[in-house]
Records
---
Amino acid sequence: MATELILAVDLDDKDVAKSFLAPLRGELSWVKLGLQMFLKYGPGIVDEFADAGFKVFLDLKLHDIPNTVASAIKSLRGRPCGMLTIHTLGGAEMMRRALDAAEDALPQTRLLGVTVLTSMNDAQLAGIGVPRAPMAQVEVLAKLAAEAGMRGLVCSPLELPSLRGFLGEEIALVTPGIRPKTASLDDQSRVMTPADAAAAGASYIVVGRPILKADDPVAATRAIQRELA
């Protein structure tokens, strides 16, 4: 399966975002909406971007007790989001309850388990009491998620070869931390180019600032799509 591009719409204003996306319709299918947009405008923002012609990846990174996460997912009933994130650190029971809730309320939505944020490195993990290196911690959480029944994971591109090695092709791997060679790393610690991520087995790559801050966003999008092809 070809690797697909997801644009992270990390903008403050929905109308600005829609204007930005208008010339990109037809150039990409997926947009990622995060907490910033969701909290400002509410769940209806999902419908607005779906109505604008895009598949929506809702990146809320839900993490709470099992009942609360399940209830939160049920509150999104019927929203046209193709993917939704939860934290694997919530544990197997939380993930199972989330999957049950999604099967009922969001049957067309793939739940993605967030493993280790791409902004985290060895020192930062150690600072929160995790003795493992990011790669080892990702593998532990990925195995837990797969055993709980999750069909998708978010990981850094650097973990792609390892995860593909023991998860196979059935689980979608979504990778932020993607930077074309000429782009700034910004706040990402574990990064890879689009072409390398595709070769390593990414199902989807998430790109934000290299497109959002480009002088020509359409040209930047097309360049990334050419790399993926």
---
Amino acid sequence: MGIVLAILIFSFLVFFHELGHFVLAKKNGIDVDEFALGMGPAVYAKEYKGTKYALHLFPIGGFCAMGEDEEATDSPGNFNNKSVWARISVIAAGPVFNFILAFVVAVILIMIIGYDRPVAYDVPKGSPAAEAGIQAGDTIVTMGDKKIHIFREISMYNQFHQGETTEITYRHDGEEKTVLVTPELDEELNYYRFGISGGQYTKANLLTAAQYGVYELKYWICLTLDSLKMLAGGRVGLDQMSGPVGIVSMVDDTYEASKGYGGVAVIVEMLNIAIFLSANLGVMNLLPLPALDGGRLVFLFIEAVRRKRVPPEKEGYVHLVGIALLMALMIFVMFNDIRRVFF
């Protein structure tokens, strides 16, 4: 069942991404040859207003095939005949829709379980935080130069700044105080800790859920970006990355661990995974790498500045090389996933 849920979640996220391209393409009068759900042979197809809407055999993602044929440049609906800003909006819409989806799912999740305010639930006596004057019930306002909105941002900051002395601003009885705190090494776990525990959730109305839905989206985007910085800086290796196989395994493990607590627990965990994956998909697609939406946006912004399009054949070569490198990376990541899961 966990594997089925993983496929459904991932497929819907990819479908929603392609829906973003589709909606903005239609809004800008761009020809869309086919808008499809799934991959492989078509099991159902119907044409409407020049677009074929299709359902394919394998429920894995989807695609939006726009009219981008260089030989059809006379067509007013050709993608390449539209203004550069229209084309930018179409390409950017995919990742933006992923962020929108992550926000909507976050609001739903917060309405179910509430939100985790950055309030210290427990500060053990003798811990670095306690020694600095932080007490249970205090609200953490900032850590370093990072504004704290939800408790998990405290854990995230510590994760990416292990062992660093940190300036923490907290609110105690309505008064803000700033202290320097040096985390202490937990030798058993080989992990530095400040000694601030949380975990309490507050019920939310729709307005509060929307506010904290933004904070939730920000949290996952920042987590993805910080992870990429660690990867680029060599602090983590490529062998620690996960692809589709790893994601399916993660979803399956989460399902097996949560199903014993009932249907609501399973729904909550799946919503959490959907938020993470949707935000992650949005960020990854905006990276300025060839073959990704971000790579295409780079060429479009260059065109906007130069007021002259980069020769299509040169752009095509760059994207072709990018596709080859991405395929090689995917094979490498898949190999590592399989090794971790099955060996």
---
Amino acid sequence: MEKENIICFGEMLWDMLPTGKMPGGAPMNVAIHLKNFGYITSIISRVGTDDLGNELMDFVKEKGLNTNFIQHGQTHLTGVVKVNMDDKNNVSYKIVKPVAWDYILLENDALEAVKKSDCFVFGSLSARSEQTFDTLKKLLSIAKFKVLDINLRTPYYDKETIEFLLNNTDLLKLNHLEIDEISQWFFKPGTVEENLRLLSEIFKIKTICVTLGEEGALLLHENKIYRSAGYEVDVVDTIGSGDSFLASFISNILKNTPVDIALNEACAMGALVATYHGASPKISKQEIQNLMNKSLSKSNV
């Protein structure tokens, strides 16, 4: 049975890898994983009327996403990202601009859909262009539950923009490098735990996840700190691991799963995705549970 209605907003694109191209973009990756968990998911984005755009549309249709809110523009090409995988644990990206998703327009049917949605997921990268940022602002003003995925990609961010987004967020996800940088903008940084509490206090965000790579993740929820040590796996690449982490966490939060369990499952999900090529392999709940059980049995030896 399908569950809550979730809308993801922002970039959908092609990751240009040394081995070839793969579909990507954080909002699209999150949407695909949430669909795999049984949620009704849609994406608001924009592609070109080129071959890459047509291929991307075929891909998301195959994944079962609602494509009614994906716009098609003739002026700009479908987004691409050049991916450097010299260090598989720290993948770097060169994001081409301008492309189609920089020009997402405000359309009435999308506006109504966001109003009725149970969860609205967006990323900081979608605020890099004036047109898409304007559309995002209007959607944030009517969304019920807002989830921000911070992606600080040089040179596409600044303090003022991030501050606006943080002020319009109910659940925040970012990595340890990003929380370090953002903390320096607003207060004298301390430990990650101290930074979490201050960010939560300043921006009134009651739930913040910080991913720590192979060391797991930290979570602040209603002023209490939780920690997951993470899971040991053989890494193929880390593309999409953070997106899958977020999708798993959102899925459990919407089901009112205890937050410590939600955090552990999210870390297991992120670790499993890192054992595959690409950002959106289908991971079952059973695979997640098996990895968690394996880790638990090791720790009890």
